[in-house]
């Protein structure tokens, strides 16, 4: 929960003072721009201001002091005719004594007023006091600065930070379009106005103090070697006194991004020049190595580091391009967060409720109370997978059984003895299949054959030709013993058909 919104008057009354020159500055300043001394906290009585209660330009009644900065004081004023409150900024007297500086202040006020953008503070009027001090009138902002948000809350969640950064980039793009470069962009120059009025974190952004650094930097009042501006947000070319363009604002916005994601600026030192030196020569440490909160930035870290490039040409070419990269990186980060979230589906009957998982703006899970809208589906038994597995198993077993039976049949046929019929025996060896050979039978087992061959032909009246003897002897002989039956031997050459009439044996 964000702290209660503080009014502008509460923030601006916190001031800093230089112990060397005695000048006062706003609460965000750390070093004096005139002598480089480190500023110290100071308290002052705004009721002692001589302008309180007076009327400026016969229209603006000065009600109270809102704050004091490096270029002047800011007052809350009431338009006597419209009866409406505004903010008025007066240039400091010591700076207003420079005619050139006064002219540039008015010129910058006119240019800033030409920027028509909802995220740029609206300048409604400008002029001079009787003593020649210039002033400009803007809308009165009630809220808190981005600097206050970071100081009180630490790192800003990426989604919320992207919303703020997108508005800043859009405002600066509009200013750059009309030739206005801010040159002093920092968190305390970014006002956050609650858009809902309920502290929901949906802020409307207003950029203030356009052109202030350019005005004061051109003044002869500043001392040699001192660069006016806030050193922690200053670009390398500005820190080294080189000419600057719109890309200096891109670098400053990169510093703001770094601070929003990590809670600290990329470069810190004990002296004014020490900070500037780091901007010019030291490479920033990636945010993810500085803060745990920045480890989930994803592409936003690369966008930050590109914006912090030392050379202007290595940064993004424009604020529009930077805004587009912020949108792309944020969309990628949100897509990654969505992948980690549970997908909502219709709640079936009998579903078991469970506590939901909440996510913050950074995509990190946070505890939440149970809800009836959150449910956990029951897991059904995988009958389909079981049936599929059983079917495949049956097919494999069937194939294996078929192959096994085939090999058994072949082996049985190969080892089965051949039984010679009477017809085949009567034919003699020439009548056997070509792949079968005969084993001779012992003579003692066929005595009838010898007797028949010794008997006279006239005794039987049967022809005794050599061709008839085997047939007659075989017919008269008893059936041979099983051990004397002809045996099958390995084939001598392929046959067209086997002994059992299998026409496919030639392919085995």
| Global shape | elongated
Helix content: 25-40%
Structural class: alpha+beta
Uncertain segments are: 1-12, 219-226, 342-380, 418-439, 441-476, 495-500
Head-to-tail CA distance between termini: 87 Å
Cα-atom Rg, whole angstroms?
Answer: 52 Å
Number of helices: 16
**Biggest sheet, in brief?**
6 strands, antiparallel
Number of strands: 16
Average pLDDT rating: 73
The strand line-up of the biggest sheet is 4-5-6-7-9-8
Beta content comes to: 5-15%
Can you walk me through this structure?
This protein is an alpha+beta fold and 508 residues long. Helices cover 35% and strands 14% of the residues. The protein is built from 16 helices and 16 strands. The strands form five sheets. The protein has a six-stranded antiparallel beta sheet with strand order 4-5-6-7-9-8. A hairpin with a 5-residue loop joins strand 1 and strand 2. Helix 5 (158-177) packs antiparallel against helix 8 and helix 10 (299-307) runs antiparallel to helix 11. The longest helix is centred in the last third of the chain and has 33 residues, at 383-415. The chain is elongated and about 130 Å long. It starts with 7 loop residues before the first helix and ends in a 32-residue tail after the last helix. The model is unreliable at 1-12, 219-226, 342-380, 418-439, 441-476 and 495-500 (pLDDT under 50).
Topology:
Elements: H1 8-12, E1 15-18, E2 24-26, E3 39-42, E4 55-56, E5 60-68, E6 72-79, E7 84-91, H2 93-96, H3 99-113, E8 123-128, E9 134-139, E10 144-145, H4 146-153, H5 158-177, E11 190-194, E12 203-207, H6 212-217, H7 236-239, H8 246-262, H9 272-281, H10 299-307, H11 319-340, E13 352-353, E14 358-359, E15 365-366, E16 375-376, H12 383-415, H13 422-427, H14 447-454, H15 457-460, H16 469-476
Antiparallel strand pairs: 1-2, 1-3, 4-5, 5-6, 6-7, 7-9, 8-9, 10-11, 11-12, 13-16, 14-15
């Amino acid at each position: 929960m964000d702290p209660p919104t503080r009014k502008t008057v509460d923030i601006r009354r916190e001031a800093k003072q230089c112990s060397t020159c005695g000048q006062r500055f706003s609460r965000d300043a750390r070093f004096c721009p005139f002598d480089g001394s480190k500023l110290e906290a100071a308290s002052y009585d705004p009721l002692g201001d001589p302008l309180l209660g007076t009327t400026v330009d016969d229209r603006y009644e000065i009600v109270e002091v809102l704050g004091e900065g490096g270029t002047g004081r800011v007052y809350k004023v009431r338009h006597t005719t419209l009866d409406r409150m505004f903010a008025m900024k007066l240039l400091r007297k010591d700076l207003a004594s420079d005619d050139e500086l006064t002219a540039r202040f008015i010129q910058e006020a006119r240019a800033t007023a030409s920027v028509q953008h909802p995220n740029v503070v609206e300048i409604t009027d400008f002029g001079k006091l009787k003593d020649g001090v210039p002033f400009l009138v803007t809308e009165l902002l009630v809220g808190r600065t981005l600097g206050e948000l970071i100081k009180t809350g630490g790192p800003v969640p990426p989604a919320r930070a992207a919303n703020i950064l997108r508005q800043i980039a859009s405002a600066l793009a509009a200013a750059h379009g009309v030739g206005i470069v801010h040159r002093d962009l920092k968190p305390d120059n970014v006002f956050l106005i609650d858009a809902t009025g309920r502290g929901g974190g949906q802020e409307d952004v207003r950029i203030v103090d356009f052109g202030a650094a350019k005005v004061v930097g051109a003044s002869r009042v500043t001392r040699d070697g001192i660069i006016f501006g806030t050193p922690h947000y200053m670009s390398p070319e500005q820190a080294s006194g080189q000419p600057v363009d719109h890309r200096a604002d891109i670098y400053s916005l990169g510093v703001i991004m770094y601070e929003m994601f990590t809670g600290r600026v990329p470069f810190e030192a004990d002296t004014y020049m020490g900070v500037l030196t780091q901007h010019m020569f030291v490479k920033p440490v990636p945010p993810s190595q500085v803060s745990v909160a920045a480890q989930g930035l994803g592409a936003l870290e690369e966008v930050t580091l590109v914006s912090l490039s030392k050379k202007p040409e290595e940064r993004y070419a424009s604020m529009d391009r930077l805004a587009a990269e912020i949108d792309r990186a944020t969309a990628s980060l949100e897509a990654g967060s969505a992948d980690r979230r549970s997908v909502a589906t219709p709640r079936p009957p009998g579903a078991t409720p469970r506590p939901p998982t909440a996510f913050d703006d950074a995509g990190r899970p946070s505890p939440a109370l149970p809800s009836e809208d959150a449910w956990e589906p029951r897991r059904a038994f995988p009958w389909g997978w079981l049936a599929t597995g059983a079917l495949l198993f049956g097919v494999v077993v069937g194939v294996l059984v078929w192959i096994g039976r085939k090999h058994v049949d072949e082996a049985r046929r190969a080892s089965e003895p051949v039984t010679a019929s009477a017809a085949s025996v009567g034919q003699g060896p020439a009548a056997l299949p070509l792949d079968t050979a005969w084993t001779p039978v012992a003579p003692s087992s066929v005595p009838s054959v010898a007797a028949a061959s010794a008997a006279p032909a006239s005794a039987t009246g049967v022809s005794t030709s050599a061709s008839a003897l085997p047939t007659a002897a075989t017919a008269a002989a008893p059936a041979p013993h099983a051990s004397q039956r002809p045996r099958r031997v390995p084939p001598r050459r392929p046959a067209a058909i086997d002994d059992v009439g299998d026409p496919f044996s030639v392919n085995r």
